Amino acid sequence: MANETGKTLPSTGLMDLIRLICGLLRALMPNRYFLNPGLVLSDWIRDLARRRSTEGIILNFGFRRFLLVTGRDLSRHILNQSPSTNTYAAGPGKVAAVSFLAEQSLTLSHDEKWDKLRPLNEQTLSTGGSPDLQQAALFQVQVAFAQPVSSIDDIRDRMGRVMLGVVFGGAPPQLAQDIQVLFGYVQSLPRRKLLGWTQRGRRERFYGSIRQSWNEAQGTSLLARAHTFSRGGNFDEDQLLQQIPHWMFTFTGSGTDLLSRTLAMLGSRPEVAEQVRQEINAAGPLDQAISISRLNFVEACLLETCRLFPPVTRTSHVAPQGDTFDGVSIPAGLEILHYFLISLRDTSVDPSANYFEPDKWLDPGNDRRSVYPNIFLSGARACPGESLILFVCKAAIIFLYGVKNEMLSIRALTTDPLSFPFPKGTPRFRLS
Predict the structure, then answer these.
(1) CATH number of this structure's domain 84-312+344-431
(2) Tell me: the pLDDT tens digits for 49-84?
(3) Model-level pTM?
(4) Which of 43, 181, 311, 389 would staple 257 via disulfide (CB 3.0–4.6 Å)?
């Protein structure tokens, strides 16, 4: 890979930093962002990308520099390559965060370790050709969502129960609480730096419970599947156990966000919710996984919500030896930030990018997976749990709208929750 070319990436200057500072100052004013610097930064990045209109921008803060990926092509170039010390590896920000909980996880691995862990995660989590896993997941959803939901907290609780059933086949509720607390530290640099040491006991207890469940794994649980697929793979036990937190967080983190936001979109759009109900009514027996798999419009609603409000908004990488893209040099060691809210709402690619239009995912002549490759990441770094979490979220919607015959409308948010970031605060629902 060459590092010397005639092209350079644009870099932020003094005026860009002044715009950011002004945005932070305006956040102090009433009725703005309620002192939420994350929302200010999101607006600043979106404006920066719109004005520069390039595949990438160097964010120069004086004391530190980053490469902000703003184009789909550069993003695809990075994500499609197998993680390696010769291509792209996890960035220092991601390494520092994830290592707090699982330093041997797939998301931090590269080279030979990635080659070993990636197939294990794919085989364990994929629902393709696995009706037993789908049926077991459907049963867990039916049990967990038997009680009404009225808020994201309710949905998080129900998804936690589903997670315990699908991942472990049943486990102490304390595990769901522990993963929420520990991931709160993974996601928050200040908490991790200042208070991370206070969670050592919780982490030890967490892995003690996981180890016991691993040794007792049976049935159709993900742990039992991992047992089967790991045979003969020369894994050590710690390496296997450290894949499990990510499986858990798929449900309690990303899954909760995706399901609650989709319900919010449906609750604010009665005509779309009615279309969902009609598809469910025509699907066949709702206690059979095959019926769930047929519901293409429900899945389209999930994908469209995921595009507008991706559960994972950003990730980071680094090219240890540098790289070139379209004749532009990418410096070695520079931290690379993907900010998916930008690429997933690129109106130059899709004029309807800021609208909720699930039908776009059903057009056979329009490959939206190609237009929006970063919903579940892409290529070598595509999320191995995509099919499972989509199935679980579909099953929950089907159970609420079909089996229980509930129609959720939204309250405690604007009538239409569609905005650039998902509205701050806890959406609440009412039965209607």
Answers:
(1) 1.10.630.10
(2) 888 777 889 998 888 899 998 888 888 889 888 899
(3) 0.91
(4) 311
